[in-house]
Write a structure and sequence with these properties.
The structure holds three protein chains of three kinds.
Chain A: H1 2-30, H2 33-38, H3 44-54, H4 60-72, H5 86-121, H6 126-139, H7 143-156, H8 168-177, E1 193-196, E2 199-201, H9 206-239, H10 242-249, H11 254-292, H12 297-306, H13 310-338
Antiparallel strand pairs in A: 1-2
Chain B: H1 3-7, H2 14-20, H3 22-29, H4 31-48, H5 50-53, H6 94-130, H7 132-147, H8 150-172, H9 174-202, H10 205-212, H11 217-225, H12 230-253, H13 265-273, H14 282-309
Chain C: E1 4-15, E2 18-30, E3 35-39, H1 46-53, E4 61-70, E5 73-74, H2 80-86, E6 91-94, H3 98-101, H4 108-119, H5 124-137, H6 143-146, H7 156-168, E7 174-178, H8 186-203, E8 206-211, H9 214-220, E9 223-228, E10 231-237, H10 238-243, H11 248-255, H12 295-299, E11 304-307, E12 310-313, H13 315-327
Helix pairs in contact in C: 4-5, 5-7, 7-8
Classes of the chains: A mainly alpha, B mainly alpha, C alpha/beta.
Membrane topology (chain C): Peripheral membrane protein
Protein name (chain C): ABC-type dipeptide transporter
Keywords (chain C): ATP-binding, Cell membrane, Membrane, Nucleotide-binding, Transport
Chain lengths: 348, 316, 328
């Protein structure tokens, strides 16, 4: 267990080192702290003196060392735009993103497992075929487009005149296919509940949940079909195996065969892929938050790019790097706990 | 019977061999694959002949009349029959902008997949064939890049490019830059697949045989191993075209891709999104529908190829 | 009435190009405590026959005809739920490859306890006691420890012992063993076979042993059934079949045994290979490989004839018997 942790943590540190190098290289080549600090009116000599004083003429490695030691103390510089420490800007935006991701992850987990398992157990049933058909369409719709369609349907509303309005059934069908709209599609809403620190939550009021629902569905929309397809494919493969046939030959109830023997083996590769998808999820938060103007880290990052707010961009990359590394390590740990063939000793 | 007919063997032409192949056989039986290919070919042809078939040239300012702005498609009230799919906020014919936009999207999609195929095949062959330290370094890079997700890498690289070049410069070389970004972001997918098949092929006897016969490494890799890894590459590349088109659309939607003066489907959706609250849904949703159909048929073709060729793909 | 009776069993595999017949007209029986060997080359349908008894044939296989009776019940007419009461309880199975048979993510103890508790209303603790007792019977070193281990921590021989222990958990009437030693090291094959034999005798369990190894069959079983291309071609007491095989195919199998060839001489092979199930020749399926095949063999499927204690499906054997009767 300890050896496993040491190995994982050293790997994580290596990745963080690479990320910090890249981040620093971005800062070094793109950011000009002088321009932000002094403006245009200062003479060349004064600039040079200031450069020397700030250590901007030091060798790359010396400057990186300074950057890294500051970063370790939680100092990633001040945002040009917000005029406050970049990390504190991020900590104000982090809760919104986390709540969105948690909600989307819940939707994905609660739906993909039962649907994927059903489609594997009954591959020929019409319902399974419908699920698989919808899921390939789902994979082909980009997140931001799902978001836009959801806004059109449930926020703006759609009135349909496909059927003759004067007949009773036509009016009913028109009504059936029309949507009211009215769902919020902008921001987190007013009725947030303060939890602690910079964390205000959407989860505790109806209005807050209302604001959360469309963005969360959008964010889940592309990952959900992916996981359904993955779980189905893995489960189909597992169901072919000898140990499943042996479990049936032992006379076990089918529920136990499917949901213990088969599902536990199915979930092993799914957990691994899930770890990789966390990264994709963060990328999709940028898109989702842009469409819904959700005040999270993704929207903040995009704004930082358009404002060329280099310290904030760099801080975002570092924080996202930490999130990736931590979650990947956690996923590896969970995998090791579920899979007995991985001894948590560092070797497979 | 003349002597010639008995002695000459009938050598099947490529076309005849293709018609006898299992690929063609299963294609003839699969209605979904047929329709998908038909739609895909139609879209590609229409997009690349956009200058010929588009009703107007959306980049020619002389042909645009601002008074025609936000006209709905012809099946709705208040439409103008001259504009089949309606017009956007500047009064441009939506059908024309979509045709031109699809051309840009497809160009970037194909280009990016070609680039990642090149990088992926090269690095995958190197890693799989030589193993050892080269393999360790290349695959570690691939691992890290994949754990960050390709879209995330593309967004970061796109942001850096944009910050370096500035908006104006970026617009001029946007197509090339996007091909570069998506190609760089996605190479690990193909590299890992190639590496896995190389490892499987390497242990087979014919590779030993060619080595014993004194062929060089490069010749063994490209002439002997590579042809045997083509079917998984082909399957992955198909799916990657869909991914590249989506990535491009996402980048453009975020403002990190094609500028509005030279829009792709993604930038059309982005510029239309501003008008959705005013009721002009078609400006954003019609290009969106075209994008979805394009990606969907490519995905369906990829699914079909995977089922038919059944290659051992790299998982996870 | 026999404990297990299989009558005219037909099994097919539904494939895209149409059905393929994996078993045709297979009939045999098994008495209480009896040991029956089923031999044949791979692909002859031995395993399909074994799995179809408990309706565990892999997709897309299905039972197309015939019936299976067990202890007064008709298995072939049972629902999945009723069959479940029989599986692992009255009839249990041992699979070929112990490395693939146990679930890799569940502990040995869990996999034994769940089987007991699926059929008996007992507590987890009681089930564990029984499991431990069975592990002792299969002579596993430090059995207490094994209960909490996972399959990958054990060797192939050890795993097969555990699978035998699982098969014996509920004192079944029949154990169906599908090539139980094929996947093991040669050195422990005999050990495992001896253990299985001993335990079956001890508990008076009937054994249906599927194997391609005539040597094992001659040592272990009382009766033998020879299959070729989805059909039974010869069956009878093992001794008679080994010493005086009638069917040319069985003779070929016996001559191919290494101990039948003189040291330093080539082994005797049966020429050719078994046809695949979608291209079975007309008439006697063995005719293309048979040295004695006549035009008759190529067109007419042979019926069973009784020769001594054996039943043989061969035209030549029938002619010889008829000739002998004629002379008598």
């Amino acid at each position: 267990m300890i050896a496993f942790l040491v190995q994982r943590i050293s790997h994580a540190l290596l990745v963080m080192f690479v990320i910090s190098l890249i981040s620093f290289a971005i800062q070094d080549s793109l950011g000009d702290p002088l321009r932000e600090m002094v403006g245009q009116s200062v003479s060349q000599e004064e600039r040079d003196a200031l450069r020397e004083e700030l250590g901007l003429n030091d060798p790359f490695l010396v400057q990186y060392w300074r950057f890294a030691t500051h970063a370790l103390q939680g100092d990633l510089g001040d945002s040009y735009f917000y005029k406050e420490p970049a990390l504190s800007v991020i900590s104000q935006h982090l809760p919104a993103t986390l709540e969105l991701v948690i909600c989307a992850a819940l939707i994905i987990i609660l739906l993909s497992i039962p649907i994927g398992v059903y489609a594997a157990i009954k591959p020929r049933s019409p319902l399974s075929k419908a699920f698989m058909g919808v899921s390939i369409v789902g994979i082909s719709i980009p997140v931001f487009l799902t978001a836009i369609v959801l806004i059109q349907l449930f926020s703006i509303g759609v009135t349909v005149h496909w059927f003759p309005q004067e007949t009773g059934w036509g009016a009913w069908l028109n009504d059936f296919f029309s949507t009211d709209g009215g769902m919020p599609s902008y921001g987190r809403g007013e009725s947030l509940v303060h939890l602690f620190g910079s964390w205000d939550t959407n989860f505790l009021t109806l209005n807050g949940l209302n604001h959360l629902i469309l963005p969360a569905i959008s964010l889940a929309s592309i990952m959900l079909p992916l996981f359904i397809r993955l779980i189905r494919a893995e489960m189909l493969e597992v169901l072919q195996s000898d140990y499943i046939r042996f479990a049936r030959a032992k006379g076990l109830p089918m529920g136990r065969v499917y949901f213990l023997h088969a599902l536990k083996n199915t979930m092993l590769p799914v957990i691994t892929v899930g770890g990789v998808q966390i990264g994709t999820m963060v990328a999709y938060t940028i898109l989702t938050e842009t469409v819904f103007q959700w005040p999270g880290m993704g929207l903040m990052f995009l704004e930082a790019i358009t404002r060329s707010d280099i310290p904030l961009i760099v801080a975002y990359l570092m924080v996202v790097g930490v999130i990736f590394v931590v979650t990947n390590t956690l996923v590896d740990l969970i995998y090791g706990l579920v899979n007995p063939t991985v001894k948590l000793t560092g070797k497979k | 019977m003349t002597p010639s007919t008995t002695t000459t063997q009938v050598v099947p032409t490529r076309w005849q061999r293709f018609r006898a192949s299992y690929l063609f056989y299963s294609f003839k039986r699969d209605r979904v694959a047929q329709i998908s290919l038909l739609i895909f070919v139609a879209l590609v042809l229409a997009a690349f002949s956009a200058p010929l078939i588009a009703p107007t040239d959306p980049y020619d300012l002389a042909q645009i009349d601002i008074l025609n702005s936000e006209l709905p498609p012809v099946w709705m009230e208040g439409s103008d029959p001259a504009f089949l799919l309606g017009t956007d906020a500047q009064g441009r014919d939506l059908l024309s902008t979509i045709l031109y936009g699809a051309r840009v999207s497809l160009l970037i999609g194909f280009g990016a997949v070609m680039l990642q195929g090149l990088l992926g095949i090269l690095f995958g062959l190197l890693a799989g064939y030589y193993g050892g330290r080269i393999d360790a370094v290349l695959m570690r890079i691939a691992d890290i890049q994949l754990s960050f997700s390709t879209l995330m890498v593309a967004i970061v690289v796109g942001a850096i490019f944009k910050a370096t070049f500035g908006n104006l410069m970026f617009g001029e070389v946007a197509v090339l830059i996007l091909i570069l970004i998506i190609g760089i972001a996605e190479w690990p997918q193909i590299a890992r697949t190639v590496r896995a098949s190389v490892l499987a092929e390497k242990s087979k006897e014919y590779v030993d045989a060619s080595r014993v016969m004194g062929f060089g490494s490069a010749r063994i890799m490209f002439r002997h191993i590579l042809p045997n890894t083509l079917s998984p590459i082909f399957v992955i590349a198909t799916v990657q075209i869909a991914n590249a088109i989506i990535s491009e659309a996402a980048l453009s939607f975020l403002g990190l891709g094609m500028p509005e003066t030279q829009p792709s489907l993604g930038s059309l959706i982005k510029s239309g999104f501003d008008y959705i609250q005013s009721g002009s849904w078609w400006i954003t949703l019609v290009p969106g529908l075209v994008l979805v159909v394009l990606v969907l048929v490519v995905n369906l073709l990829g699914d079909w190829l995977r089922d038919v060729m059944n290659p051992r793909l790299y998982k996870g | 009435m026999a404990l297990l009776e299989v009558n005219h069993l037909d099994v097919r595999f539904a494939l895209r190009g149409g059905d393929i017949q994996a078993l045709r007209d297979v009939s045999f029986s098994l008495d209480r405590g009896e040991r029956l060997g089923i031999v044949g080359e791979s692909g002859a349908g031995k395993s399909v026959a074994a799995f179809s008894i408990l309706n565990l044939i892999a997709q897309p296989g299905y039972i197309a005809g015939g019936d299976i009776h067990f202890d007064g019940q008709t298995l072939s007419a049972m629902s999945e739920h009723q069959l479940r009461q029989i599986r692992g309880h009255r009839i249990s199975m041992i699979f070929q490859d112990p490395m693939m048979t146990l679930n890799p993510v569940l502990s040995i103890g869990e996999q034994m306890v769940e089987c007991l508790r699926a059929h008996r209303r007992i507590s987890h603790r009681e089930a564990r006691e029984i499991a431990l007792d069975r592990l002792k019977q299969v002579q596993i070193p430090s059995p207490q420890k094994r209960l909490d281990q996972y399959p990958h921590e054990l060797s192939g021989g050890m795993r097969q012992r555990i699978i035998i222990a699982i098969a014996l958990l509920l004192d079944p009437d029949i154990i169906i063993a599908d090539e139980p030693t094929t996947a093991l090291d040669v050195t422990i094959q005999a050990e495992i076979m001896a253990l299985l034999l001993e335990l079956c005798e001890q508990h008076n369990v009937a054994l249906m042993l599927i194997t391609h190894d005539l040597g094992v069959v001659s040592q272990v079983t009382q009766r033998t059934l020879v299959m070729y291309a989805g059909r039974i071609i010869e069956q009878g007491p093992t001794k008679e079949i080994i010493n005086d095989a009638q069917h040319p195919y069985t003779q070929g199998l016996i001559n191919a045994l290494p101990q039948m060839a003189d040291p330093g001489q080539r082994l005797n092979q049966i020429r050719g290979a078994m046809p695949s199930l979608n291209a079975i020749p007309s008439g006697c399926a063995f005719n293309p490989r048979c040295d004695f095949a006549t035009e008759h063999c190529r067109h007419v499927m042979p019926e069973f004839v009784t020769s001594g204690g054996c039943q043989v499906a061969c035209h030549m054997v029938r002619e010889m018997i008829e000739e002998a009767q004629h002379h008598a």
